[in-house]
Amino acid sequence: MSGRQVAQGRLVTPFYSRQRELDTVNRWHEWKGYTVADEFYCSELEYFAIRNATAVFDLTPMTKYRISGPDAPAYVDRLVTRDMTRVPVGRVAYAVWCNDSGQVIDDGTIFRLGELDYRLCSQERHLDWLLTSAAGFDVDVAHETADVAALAIQGPTSYATLDRMGLSAVGHLKPFNLMEVDFAGTSIVISRTGFTGDLGYEVWLPPQVAERFWDELFAAGRLTGIRAIGTDALELARIEAGYLMADIDFLPADTAIRPGRTRSPLELGMEWLVDFGKPMFNGRRALADELRKGSRWRLVRLDIEGNKPAKDAYIFAKPKGGEQIGFVTSAAWSPVCKQNVALGTVNARYGAVGDSLWVDIYYQRELHWTRKMARATVVDGPFWDPPRRRATPPGPY
Q1: Is 6-60+148-229 a CATH 3.30.1360.120 domain?
Q2: What are the tens digits of pLDDT across the range 303-348?
Q3: Contact present, 230 and 46 (Cβ < 8 Å)
């Protein structure tokens, strides 16, 4: 099955035939041209598969670019803000890339598959920008989204499932490492990565073996609680993990119309990804100037009182008569943390860890709207960060 197979006029992934059999609620949406599920049966139960068992999410629509050639290492290092010369073969690096004004175009993962061979995965499409940036480099940039099927296999029993499938070697992978393994006579790549903040892996394989891999994976996972999940469950997990999403928590700089609506990596809590020891990278001069003068905005992670999610809420410095200082970008009630959590952006003068802020929450029950001003405490780090996420080898869950 091709990665660009069309079913009834819609572009679908190589796993669509298997997912369609699991669907009971008929909730689908479009992701970069592909038909993907919001949920298959119940998003709440699918979420608990992430935290208690094995959850499988179809990553195929994620944008993927193959970067290769003699100048590939120099090109990739010039492209992003972190020092990619320190990333060895067999390693995955989280990175951000900026325009000349130091504003984030997107974030994503970069897989170093060989000395001169990389795969860049991102939320948005960037082929024109990548090709423009390649001027002067002996490098080839290819859009390979349709050529690579991908699954995220996440949760405490994810390794146990892969082990039962005969892929026990992945137990030696440390977080952000990758390896090639043989499956059905074909080389596939498995990385210890994910978007859930939990123990988990991502599998990258040719479309022609996708259905067979799915079938063997789900057969192996019968005793470990394996379930397919949609984007609703994944969205909750990524908020708990404190991960940012393009077009939700920040606006990609190459799509913004109004000035001042974009963010720099320093304003998104990504200063650890900016290496000023590098002689040159896109946006370096602007970011160095921002570092000297100070940022406009600050990313905050909020622990909010009560249990009403602060979706699209404004953030204030005081509960009454206070200045509006920012807004919430992502919010949820976390079942596993038993917290009302949110990500937001505030004026850089506010939002230090431990500060108390206030959010203006509106919620509706039986057509009636209620307004609540709730205290929010700025916290450090992710809301969900279990030790099993880093344990190597993973425990026998």
Answers
A1: yes
A2: 999 999 999 999 999 998 788 999 999 999 999 999 999 999 999 9
A3: yes
